[in-house]
Amino acid sequence: MTALPSLYVSHGSPLTALQPGATGARLAELAAALPRPRAIVVASAHYLARSPQVGAAAQPETVHDFGGFPAALYQVRYPAPGDPALAREVAQRLAAAGLPAIVDASRGLDHGVWVPLRLMYPAADIPVVPLSIQPRGGPAHLLAVGRALSSLREDGVLVIGSGSITHNLHDLAAGYSTEREAPYVRPFIRWIEERLAAGDTAALLDYRRQAPFAERAHPTDEHLLPLFVAMGVAGEGARAQRLDAGVDLGILAMDIYRFDAAA
What is the CATH number of domain 6-260? Predict the structure, then answer.
């Protein structure tokens, strides 16, 4: 079986599900270029816990974890099956790496999971297992989570980190738009791309001190942390390919990364 890459996707606003734009096109192209996975594990910026948790529902609910959007968005469903056996396997792999995990049989799919998957695999016929992130652990912890799951790539499992390369919702009120991007967006995404291309994991782990405008791009960590899960899954020396999906609302960079393991 051909080993799969790992992915980091910027899921953007929940409205991306109804107005996919460039993000939808890039995600559909990416899915079409990949071997079909037997299952998908998604580490979402909207599944937060103090320690690792793994969703093990046989038929996870579509969770509308947001408010104030058009009624049509709340009617969207992503009825993919779960995979309780894979969820238990994920928990076991994490525990073996010294990262004890809780298996949650009731966890549904938040919009960080179903919005991008609906654009990648609209038939919703591939089992999905949600995985929490732990913001208190920081980037190095999430890198270790990814490394613990790296062999899943060779077993037909696609591991995705879902967040946003820039994510400062405080700036929604600052007048930025498609025509007027926030000045920190391009320098930050360029720095991330350059450090990934250079394989500079040490700088990326220290991004809050080293990246330009890090505090503006990410007042809190949770939307960048899934990137480190994807990096960890790909392993040392992985090749990072950036797919540019534009900038939404002038503040949300929609970058997508594909990580292929070193040859």
Answer: 3.40.830.10
